[in-house]
């Protein structure tokens, strides 16, 4: 499937997929940290790999990212991306340790990292199960991979499969954030492989078969 | 002549040439490999940001030849020759090729960093271009910058001192 040939209806459906997934994820995150979580209207972007890095502040931006590979009919990659500050904020909420800092030193608190991983697992898990329920497509997520490094280095790791077939990626981007004065603000990126798009559209009965 | 120094930026699967006083940079190398080839006397250098090892695995008809190690290196050499570089004087420096995640699946993406490095080294060998220095592997992202005057490659990693190789 050529990304450029998607109809506006198909783009709408992808947006709705992001909506459902992130809505579910926001609910579980809200329960987890006992705060209200808001989500923005998802955007569907067809971007070059360089543009993808720019979506979150450029290739050198330091980010905390959790990556899941999805196997099955809808092979894709899901990222849950936070800034360092946001991740620290979250960990402080969960572990109730207000002095926690990720950048402090290399032997960072193992419990905190594990908490972050678990949070990512739960939140992304609910994103995916909503997606799978909605589409009826079989999705098998991998274990979460956590990394704190430059955006370029982390994001390309999930693009390798896509880059064999395309110079563009389609990104369903949804942000969630907690109340105004607390800065927790995460991005979900869902990057389906081109062949998965057909599967998704088929499952939802809107494939044009052009 | 007094021209301001600018930083020429090379994107993913991209390739560019630089002459003084400019320097050339690529940011956020993970499993990708940054290949710098230069002529230290003629002061001309080129940088390729290679994403994948082998163009035979492409599923595109018209693929970007800067994306793959086996095609990008020869293009880089040609560009250098066109811009005044001399074949016998060319040398190379490498950085990148990290393993950002320990994927457990059996897909191609396993060890992609190591395979990228190997592919670039093979290509350089084939063209008899010596590798002067390299900073490769590990599990960290890198930003690199090369200055054609000093022929130093600056490597920056998160939470580490910058090094020159």
UniProtKB/TrEMBL annotation, chain A:
InterPro entries xrefs: CheC (IPR007597), CheC-like_sf (IPR028976), CheZ_family_phosphatases (IPR050992)
Pfam families: CheC
Protein origin, superkingdom: Bacteria
Signal peptide location: none
KW Isomerase (keyword) present: no
Keywords attached to this entry: Chemotaxis, Hydrolase
Entry-linked CDD domains: CheC_ClassI
Gene Ontology molecular-function annotations: hydrolase activity
Annotated CheC-like protein domain residues: 9-44, 112-147
Single biological process term from Gene Ontology: chemotaxis
Keyword Hydrolase: yes
Full protein name: Chemotaxis protein CheC
UniProtKB/TrEMBL annotation, chain B:
Keywords: Chemotaxis, Hydrolase
Gene3D superfamilies the UniProt entry points to: 3.30.1330.200
Listed Pfam families: CheD (PF03975)
Family note: Belongs to the CheD family.
Role noted for this protein: Probably deamidates glutamine residues to glutamate on methyl-accepting chemotaxis receptors (MCPs), playing an important role in chemotaxis.
PANTHER family: CHEMORECEPTOR GLUTAMINE DEAMIDASE CHED-RELATED (PTHR35147)
The name this protein goes by in its record: Probable chemoreceptor glutamine deamidase CheD
Native source species: Oceanobacillus halophilus
Gene: cheD
